[in-house]
Amino acid sequence: MKFDTAYSLSLDDKLSIYDVRELNFDETDAYDSDTDRFLCPNDTCRAAFDAGNVLSTFNAKNVNYRRTPHFKNTPGTRHIEGCRYASSHKPATGESEDEREEHFPSEFVLTRRTYPRKTPQAGTEGQVPQAPAKPPSTRTSASVGANDTTPDKTSVFAHPVECYVSNLDDKDKLKAMPLKIGDHTSTYWTFFKKIEYLQDNQGLIYWGRIKAIKDYTNSFRIDFEKKVWLDKKPYSVNVYLSKKLIENYRKRTAFLEQIKAAASSARPLYCFFYGVTPALRQVPSKKNPEQTFGVFSADIENLDHLIIREVPAAEAG
Question: What confidence tens digit (pLDDT) does each residue in 288-299 have?
Answer without folding.
Answer: 888 888 999 999
